[in-house]
Amino acid sequence: MVQMAQxxxxxxxxxxxxxxxxxxxxxxxxxxxHDLSITGLHMRRPPGFALPVGQALEVEVRCxxxxxxxxxxxxxxxARIGASTVGLRFAPMPGRMVRTLxxxxxxxxxxxxxxxxxxxxxx
Length: 123
Prior knowledge:
Elements: H1 6-11, E1 13-15, E2 18-24, E3 27-36, E4 40-44, E5 56-63, E6 70-81, E7 85-90, H2 95-108, E8 110-112
Antiparallel strand pairs: 1-8, 2-3, 2-5, 3-4, 4-7, 5-6, 6-7
């Protein structure tokens, strides 16, 4: 597997296998990830998800290959809601966590450009 430069990861959305579990005041929702970055994530809209834009929540991100068992628990806000997708923006993270997430993205992710429907660019 060819790794991306961390500078590319810092500016880009990365296709990553995994799922996100949203923990909100109304309950929990889970759905597959579309893409992930150091500032947020884009995921399929879970059935019954109705939190408003701006709502603070916890999100557990399980990503990478199953044998890697990579989990992040992050604070986030709902950034946008579409008919079939949800975008979350992460709260500021300590530098050490940002660097860890960058390493995970560069090692296990695939660089993505444009919209979620655009083709994936392989390094």
